[in-house]
Design goal:
Elements (H helix, E strand, L loop, with lengths): L3 H32 L9 H5 L2 H15 L8 H14 L5 H17 L5 H31 L7 E11 L4 E8 L13 E6 L8 E6 L9 E6 L8 H9 L6 E5 L15 E6 L3 H14 L5 E7 L8 H10 L3 E7 L13 E2 L4 H7 L6 E5 L2 H13 L7 E4 L12
Parallel strand pairs: 7-8, 7-11, 8-9, 9-10, 11-12
Antiparallel strand pairs: 1-2, 1-6, 2-5, 3-4
Helix pairs in contact: 1-3, 1-5, 1-6, 4-6, 5-6
Catalytic activity: 2 nitric oxide + NADH + 2 O2 = 2 nitrate + NAD(+) + H(+); 2 nitric oxide + NADPH + 2 O2 = 2 nitrate + NADP(+) + H(+)
Organism: Pontibacillus salipaludis
InterPro entries: Cbr1-like_FAD-bd_dom, FAD-bd_FR_type, Flavoprot_Pyr_Nucl_cyt_Rdtase, FNR_nucleotide-bd, Globin, Globin-like_sf, Globin/Proto, Hmp
């Protein structure tokens, strides 16, 4: 329990962390990896190089400082991060190491501002915050391992099928080598895959949304291939070009809190951009099975039909289920696309949403690239949709959506 004095010290440092948080977390990661290079196996090095992880951590530290006297306020964020930690294998023994290097980075960056009193207060605060993470993550580890068909860590899966879905997206069907039944998952969750790529110094771990409904004898991920010269392409290119049917990939149990709430029967709107449709396809397939009377509108934005994955599956559902509507929006349609009878062109806007949706009294789930996410969030915000009816997920470290002022 923090003293009132230390709470005041932590809260007084919040403005400094807001201004210099990324500087501190960047120095933290430099120190951490220099002294503990073995931890590089746990981290996405692309996110490190692009500064995404540093920004995400800085935001989390700032939120902790702001809410140090009411940590329950940030529990949703803690749980979201904890899901990621469980899926990649972060352990309790990592936290003291992280705390040591985070305090050293604060001392180095803040200089005279990092007084002994400030560092002592932050050492105590970090211990409390770390214990919250450790307890939540241990519960998640136990749940993943003890559920029917569950397992600890990474388990070997065979690629039983590899199917091209568009010019840039390929689906991989994964079945456990040990032939044991698979644990179910909540639609919207992801798995982590662990890859040892020849020529790469460190193991790569990536999260991919499960793109099919639960209760199958396989897991399916649908992966976008990034450009060869893009640092993000290391893993996706390896999967697309080098992984073949019959190959084995280590996989962790499903995780994630961006999940469909099937306890509600409110009309549902699923809005996706690009490869962001993968968790929403899982949600769509689930809701038509478990809630066949629930009204669903599936909206997908892509550049054109050549980059539009899984459209056959969605169209088939729309043909079979009267309660499902489907709209596609192409920003750069091909000549063939322009011949389509019901072609929508352009980008997601409030005006367009109001044209295709009868009202805003719905539950909205959306996922896609950053620009798409901001545009969708702002459109819904302008329409007066309350935040509790908006559910979304970023691929990679969480970011802050830009609100309308």
């Amino acid at each position: 329990m923090l003293s009132n004095e230390n709470i005041a010290i932590i809260k007084s440092t919040a403005p400094i962390l807001k201004d210099r948080g990324v500087e501190i977390t960047s120095r933290f990661y430099e120190r951490l990896f220099a002294n503990h290079p073995e931890l590089l196996h746990l981290f996405n090095q692309t996110n490190q190089k692009k500064g995404r992880q540093q920004t995400a951590l800085a935001n989390a530290v700032y939120a902790a400082a702001e809410n140090i006297d009411r940590l329950e306020e940030i529990l949703p964020v803690v749980k979201q991060i904890a899901h990621k930690h469980r899926s990649i294998g972060v352990q309790a023994e990592h936290y003291p190491v992280v705390g040591e290097h985070l305090l050293l980075a604060m001392k180095e960056v803040l200089g005279d501002g990092a007084t002994p009193e400030v560092l002592q207060a932050w050492e105590e605060a970090y211990s409390i915050i770390a214990n919250v993470f450790i307890e939540i993550e241990q519960d998640m580890y136990d749940e993943a391992a003890m559920q029917p068909g569950g397992w600890e860590g990474f388990k070997a899966f065979k690629v039983t099928r590899k199917e091209i879905e568009s010019d840039v997206i390929t689906s991989f069907y994964l079945e456990p080598i040990d032939k044991k039944p698979l644990p179910s998952f909540s639609p919207g969750q992801y798995i982590s895959v662990q890859l040892h790529i020849e020529g790469e110094a460190y193991t790569h771990v990536r999260q991919y949304s499960l793109s099919d409904a639960p209760h199958q004898d396989y897991y399916r991920i649908s992966v976008k291939q990034e450009c060869d010269h893009d640092p993000e392409g290391v893993v996706s290119n390896y999967l697309h070009k080098s992984i073949k049917e019959g190959d084995t990939i280590p996989v962790s149990a499903p995780a994630g809190d961006f999940v469909l709430d099937t306890s509600r029967d409110t009309p549902l709107v699923l809005i996706s951009g690009g490869v962001g449709l993968t968790p929403l396809v899982s949600m769509l397939k689930t809701v038509v099975t478990q809630q066949p009377n629930r009204e669903v509108t599936f909206i997908h934005a892509a550049r054109n039909s050549q980059l539009h994955a899984l459209k056959g599956e969605i169209n088939q559902i729309v043909k079979q289920i009267d309660t499902v509507k489907n709209y596609t929006l192409y920003s750069n349609p091909t000549e063939e696309d322009r011949k389509l009878k019901d072609l929508n062109t352009g980008y997601i806007t409030l005006e367009w949403l109001q044209k295709v949706l009868p009202h805003n009294q719905m539950d909205f789930y959306f996922c896609g690239p950053s620009g798409f996410m901001n545009a969708t969030f702002q459109a819904l915000q302008q329409w007066g949709v309350p935040e509790e009816r908006m559910h979304y997920e970023f691929f990679g470290p969480a970011k802050q959506l830009e609100t309308v002022h």
